[in-house]
User: Fold this.
Amino acid sequence: MDSSYTKFLKMMRTQGSAYNPEGIKIATVITADPLTVIVDDLPLDKDNLLMADYLLNGYERTANIPSTSATKVTFTDGLKENDMLAVIKISQKKYLILCKVVSL
Assistant:
């Protein structure tokens, strides 16, 4: 194969990969309050994390259940130590917690 062609392909691959986002990673909850997780040996805290509100302990939501009046539901099963999370890096210093995951 021509050396210049090989160099050109390598350059295209390098440039293309520079714009591809990192894949989804698994993080582990180290402490629940305050929330600290570890991903790839990197500890992350509230300054580095975004997450869905329903993962918070004490999250409240109003539910309309037929044959009853509107009921406020409080979730008390927030994240706990050793929980596994699916996370994705969204900027140089921020990760988004996508969801809690479990082994089957």
User: Anything to note?
Assistant: The CA atoms of residues 11 and 17 lie 10 Å apart. The mean pLDDT is 89. The chain has one helix and eight strands. The beta strands are 25-32, 35-39, 42-44, 49-51, 59-63, 71-75, 84-89, 95-101.
